[in-house]
Each structure stands twice: as C-alpha cells, then as structure tokens.
Amino acid sequence: MDQPGPIARTTGAAAPLRDRLTIPVLAFGGILMAVMQTVVVPLLPDLPRLTGASAGAVSWTVTATLLSGAVLTPVLGRAGDMYGKRRVLTSALALMTVGSVMCALSSDITVLITARALQGAAASVVPLSISILRDELPPERRGSAVALMSSTVGIGAALGLPLAALVVQYYDWHTMFWLTTALGVLGVCAVWWAVKESPVREPGRFDIPGALGLAAGLVCLLLGVSQGGQWGWGSARVLGLFAATVVILALWWWWQLRAEKPLVDLRLVSRPRVGLSHVAALLTGFAFYANSLVTAQLVQAPKATGYGLGLSIVETGLCLLPGGVTMLLFSPLSARISASRGPRVTLALGAAVIACGYVVRIADSRDLWMIILGATVVSTGTTLAYSALPTLILRAVPAEQTASANGVNVLMRTIGQATSSAAVAAVLVHHSGPVGGALVPTLHGYLLAFGMACAVALVAGAAALSIPGDPGTGATRRARGRTRDRHDEALEGA
Question: Where are the alpha helices (DSSP H) in 195-342?
C-alpha cells in the first residue's frame, strides 16, 4: 500500500516553500529537456555553412542526441533506483548544461556532435522525476502531478522551436546555446534546492555487462533505423547493423535472465500489464511523432506545389504552439479520467483522439486553420496517452523499480519516434515530384503518412484495451461493491 511521502505531511499553507515548488521545479526540468532537444532544428539548414561540414555530418547533431538518450535513459533510471533519484537527475541536467556550453563555445562539427550526445542524457529527466513524484506525493496528488510531468515533453517541444527560430533569426546562433546554458544552470540549482532525495532504493551491484549490451544493441538498432534512408535499406551497412542488433540483444536477453540484479527485470516486463504498456508506448510514440514531422514540412512547402503555404520556421513554430498549450491544459483532465476509469481507458481514449486528429488532417491539409486544428487534436490525444503511460507503470511495478521501469517505457517511445521518422521519410521520398528544379513531397505522400500514423494510433488503442484492468479503478471497485451487495443479500435471505 502506498505511504504518503514527505510532501504529504507538509501540504497546505504551512508547507515549506521548497516542498510547494517540487512539482513546478520538476516540470521545469522536463520542459527544459524538451526545449534542448528541439533548439537545434532551426539551425539544421544553415549548419553546413556555419560549420563547414557536410549535410550528412550536420544531421548527426540530431542523431547523436537520439542515440545517447535511448541508451542512457534506462541506464540512468536503474542508477536512480540504486543510488538516489535526485542525485542522478541533477547529474543528467548537469551533463545537458555542459553540452550546451560546448555548443556555445565552438563551431567545430565534432565538438557539436559530442556536445549533443551529452545533452541526450537529459532524456532520463522525465522518468526520474515521475519516480520522485511517486515517492514524495500522496496518492491523491500523484495522478495530476504525473500527468503534468508527462505533458512537459510536448510543451517544451512546442515552445523550443519558435524560441530557437527567433533567436537564430535576430542574433548569433551561439546566443541560443548561451541562453539554454543559463536555463540549464537554473534547472540544476532549482532541483538541488527544491527536490528531496528519495529514501526508496533498491541496493545491489550495478549491471555493467547489461548496460554495455543494451547500449550496443540500441546503437545498432537506432543507427540502422535513422540512417537507413540515407545509406539505403538494402545496403550492407544497414543490414549488418540489423543483424548485429538481433545477435547482441539476444545475448543481452540471455544475460538479463541470469543476472542477480539485472539492468532490466525481464520477468517484470513479461507481465501483461507492463509488457503491453511498453508496446502501447512504442506505437503511441510512432503515431505522435508523425504529427510534428509532417506538419513542419507541409506548411513550409513552397506555394508552387499547389498545397504548400511557404511559411518561415518561426511561423511554423507558432503553428505548433497551440498544441503545446493544449497539452498543458488537458493534463489535469487526463489525471481525472485515469482516477475514475483507469489509465488504460485514458490511454485508449488518447489513441482514439490521435486517430481523429489525423482524420482531420486527411480531410483538409490545405487551409492553415484546419492544419492547426488537426495538429492540436493530435497533441490533445498525445497528452491523454502520454499521461496515462507512466501511471500504468507506477501501478504495475514495485516502488523501488519505478525509475528503471519508466526509463524503459520512455525508451520504447523513443524507438517508436525513430521508426516513425524513418517511415515518414520513406513515404515522402517515394511520393515526391519536381517543383522549381527540386524534388518535393506530393500532397498524396503527406496524406499517406497521415493515414499510416492514424492506423498505428488505432493499433495502440487496441493494445491499451488489451492491458489487464487495474484493481484500483472505479469500474472494478463498483463491480466488487455489487458482488458484496449480492453476498449480503444472500446472507440476509439465509
């Protein structure tokens, strides 16, 4: 049974300021992480000129963050369960800040790629923060706090793109990284001051072979997925990476089943409530990410295509901003639905709303207001789904494994996003035509991408409904109440 944490004993007017700021500070860390991941996007077209590097080398400023984030999230989650969640959280934010300083001081592409890899450590901020909230908050406050924490990913991404575009347009591009450095220092100091170290630990020896094996397998997998379109899906490099993925992860699985204290408890993952939650996370990540990818390209397409709006990167970021605001507003609703109907219902509802958003996109992708409406509906569904996923994990795993289990769940979302990026790119490349001497995706290609994401969202909803019900949900409690009533009636009749 959940016990109230330190914050539960000091709520209200008498609560110390630090206790009252714990949730806002953790949410700020999540938003900062998402901002840091997106600020480089407006720079990508100009980085070859600014750094003297090729376009292929510049793309690694995004790929490096993706790879390091995928590798470090489950590793740092496990470290947080063992050595202290606040300690690991501040370390992740510090690495992110060091990476930002390196970007601010250098124009060398090698330094920039290394710095962006360091910033990938911040991907662990959300699962670590959610685990802290479980340890520190009473059950009645936990749902809304976790929902807010989950929505920070979308809020930060929606804020980061227009903010970075404005800075890049009016100032030297290094200024953007000095700004994120200042925010990073603020985040580290705020977490260290306002967040208490959780007493919940799972002692033991850290599984170094498991961490190295998972890192190698994920690097091979995500490298093949992210570079398949550029290298060729049938090339020896990509096929070799996928073959290496299968071999390495099979050996890693074998080791995890035999390790005394494994990095990932596969026996726990094999439980339907945990395993199906991870499957739903992967599918939801795929469905959500197509929205940002396709919307940005669609509205920036030249007007000569017949459908494009020719918007600037700043205007594009503003088009995505309503989705971020919606995620902030709908996170409390997600918590209420999860409390009354159970998180699996919230997850299924979120997947259905995402699918509806893509139906809007398919119906009309020419008018700006319809594009914004469809993108905002998808963001609303993403809020419901992403807020429900950590709640499902929290209810299904022991308290001492929440950071590592949520880290794996975030990893599955990352894999889904990487797969979505590759799939969308393949569809758009296959359905392109010449416009002004350059190949540009056709409207049919965009609509196919929307249809693909819609179908994946529906599969995610089916996976959510397949998750075994939570004994704490309102429906199950009512069913138990009816059973008790019938039992009492039978006793009275006897």
Answer: 208-231, 236-258, 266-269, 272-300, 313-341
Under a CB-based contact definition with an 8 Å cutoff, are residues 152 and 27 in contact? yes
Round the average pLDDT of the chain to a whole number and report it.
84
pLDDT for residue 6 is more than 90: no
pLDDT digits (tens, 9 = 90+) for 169-200: 788 889 989 999 999 999 999 999 999 887 77
Q: From 81, 179, 64, select the one nearest 130 (Cα to Cα).
A: 81
User: Rg of the chain over CA atoms, in angstroms?
Assistant: 23
Q: What's the pTM?
A: 0.82
- Count Cβ atoms within 10 A of the Cβ of residue 283 and give its class: 0-12 exposed, 13-18 middle, 19 or more buried: buried
pLDDT above 70 as % of the chain: 92
Report whether 404 contacts 74 (CB < 8 A): yes
Contact 40, 60 (CB under 8 A): no
Three-state SS for 309?
coil
Q: Is there a contact between 136 and 196 (Cβ–Cβ < 8 Å)?
A: yes
Measure the CA dihedral 43/47/51/55, to 10°. Answer: 150
pLDDT attached to residue 244: 95
Sign of CA dihedral 226, 227, 228, 234: negative
Q: pLDDT at position 345, please?
A: 93
As a whole number of angstroms, the distance between CA 488 and CA 157 comes to 54
CB 389 within 8 A of CB 284: yes
